[in-house]
Amino acid sequence: MNYVLGIDIGGTNVVAGIVNKEGDIIQQFQYKTNNYITAENLITDIYKDCKLFERDSNLKVSAVGIGAPNANYFTGEIEFAPNLNWGNSVPISKIATKYFNLPVKIINDANAAAIGEKFFGCAKEISNFVLLTIGTGLGSGIYVNGKILLGKNGMAGEFGHTQLPHIKRVCSCGQIGCIETVASKRGILQTYKEKYNELFNDFLDNMPSIEQIYQLALNGNNIALSVFQEVCEVLSIGIANLIMILDTEAIILFGGIANAHKIMIPIIENEVNKRLLPVFKNKVKILPSMLLNKNASVLGSAAMFFYEF
Amino acid sequence: MNYVLGIDIGGTNVVAGIVNKEGDIIQQFQYKTNNYITAENLITDIYKDCKLFERDSNLKVSAVGIGAPNANYFTGEIEFAPNLNWGNSVPISKIATKYFNLPVKIINDANAAAIGEKFFGCAKEISNFVLLTIGTGLGSGIYVNGKILLGKNGMAGEFGHTQLPHIKRVCSCGQIGCIETVASKRGILQTYKEKYNELFNDFLDNMPSIEQIYQLALNGNNIALSVFQEVCEVLSIGIANLIMILDTEAIILFGGIANAHKIMIPIIENEVNKRLLPVFKNKVKILPSMLLNKNASVLGSAAMFFYEF
């Protein structure tokens, strides 16, 4: 097998890439998730682009790997994904098979990213790690003893929806207190807004972007810094709990927000170690993904056909 | 191998049993943990009892399996166990090898109980489950894909020390907010005391035992019922988080407190399902251990020599 089409379906963007065994993305296509009313519309467009690529390059794609939120490896369906609007149960594997007529595998997007990190990123030598995808939502891909943790139904790693009762925010999943309501794009923006309103007793007219908040923090802006402090504190409670449950070797930060790792990692290291039992203290590495500027989910989705994961 | 000595070291009691491959404990010895100033004193006594057994029965013990809190499978040491007072690092495997001159394996007591449940209890057909030991402390043994989850350092499953920030109690480990401070013997007693004081604006003179509180609850006593409700609510937040991280098939209740499962399980089922993402709702079994009146840790510690775990 020489080339696999890896597709990363996110709440905001969809990226499809033609991947080789070395983890090079030799061609990449991008789509806006909200432009597609159904998953089938999306797959149709990806299929067309893939066919054009094959015609122009004279290369052949041999399989399709898909990473998507709440994708079930065993059933081939996307089930109850809070950040997608294509219904409660999307038979994405069946749809992709119909168009491409090739072997198709689907996996939770965070698992895909973890597989990408394992074969092409900073986890090549690590058998036990958790990759956190911090972006529109908060997900995790968990490696245990050198194998991805799928769980009974292929749905393991829903770290973003683990709850801390002191969080009072309502999540996109309908629950209250999910860590994702704080440690995600949405969570950071909301925290910024709340802090601004509180401090100036005034409503924020022009909401800065995540990138701007990060730049403000890098420049020493107090509100921005306190936003990252608060977000990382909540995230760290969850990470410390993960470490004590899994006895993992490394936590890898991935996703849009992880680009702020220069500010986040020192806070997380401090907050996590404060909470750990002595046996775990200062043993767990908190690392930025090595694939932050690549697409780890595309790579990992494709890697399912190249390697034992 | 016909007979293995399984030893379960708890914060209150130590039980040693001569176990056969079918999971029968053909002879059992019991010790009070606090009677022993060092682990070596304890092992000396167990060794003497084992030798007497061998002499009287004409049977031979071929190996020694030990389950203990914070026991590290890889190093053979008990490390920083908050409920034992034998120092930060107890080379229990080395000590046992010295006396018995037999193969010795040690494992976290909750892992031992999970292994016991897997081979001799209600988890024979289950590949993904979490066994919770609710007693003096709160521990967990996690099975993933038919294998016990040891983690990088053999310390996985420290569920009792995962933290929920709305809990304000100080734990025996020194941290604040560990689930163990609520869901354990100590936690139940403290909750009862607090509720009594609050309700009657008076201090409790005669503290009932756990068993008495359970009997009171069975008889419909409001304080006792609200104690179990509150304890199970906190425990359920942790269980729901475990399910969303691990996508596990069953939660098995074990340990002294699990004898109250008739009252606890309906509350836990309700509270856990309230918090789960739709994909997980009503799929996970909450079960009482099938080994509640046997000693699962003794059986599991011995089973390490009989089976691949």
Strand order of the largest sheet of chain A: 3-2-1-4-7
Percent in strands of chain A: 15-25%
Q: What's the alpha carbon Rg of chain A, rounded to whole Å?
A: 19 Å
Mean pLDDT of chain A: 94
Q: Biggest interface: chains and residue counts?
A: A-B, 48 and 48 residues
* Helix content range of chain A: 25-40%
Number of helices of chain A: 8
| Sequence of secondary-structure elements of chain A | EEEHEEEHEHEEEHHHEHEH
Major sheet of chain A: 5 strands, mixed
Number of strands of chain A: 12
Assembly level: homodimer
Class derived from helix and strand content of chain A: alpha/beta
Describe the protein:
- Two copies of one chain form a homodimer.
- The first copy, chain A, has 309 residues and is α/β, with parallel strands linked by helices.
- Chain A has helices at 39-57, 92-100, 109-120, 185-200, 210-218, 222-246, 261-275, 296-306; strands spanning 4-9, 13-19, 25-32, 63-68, 78-79, 89-90, 104-108, 129-134, 138-144, 147-148, 250-254, 285-288.
- In chain A, the strands form three sheets. A five-stranded mixed sheet of chain A has the order 3-2-1-4-7. Chain A has a five-stranded mixed sheet with strand order 10-9-8-11-12, with helices on both faces. Chain A has a two-stranded antiparallel ribbon with strand order 5-6.
- Chains A and B meet through strand 9 and helix 6 of A and strand 9 and helix 6 of B.
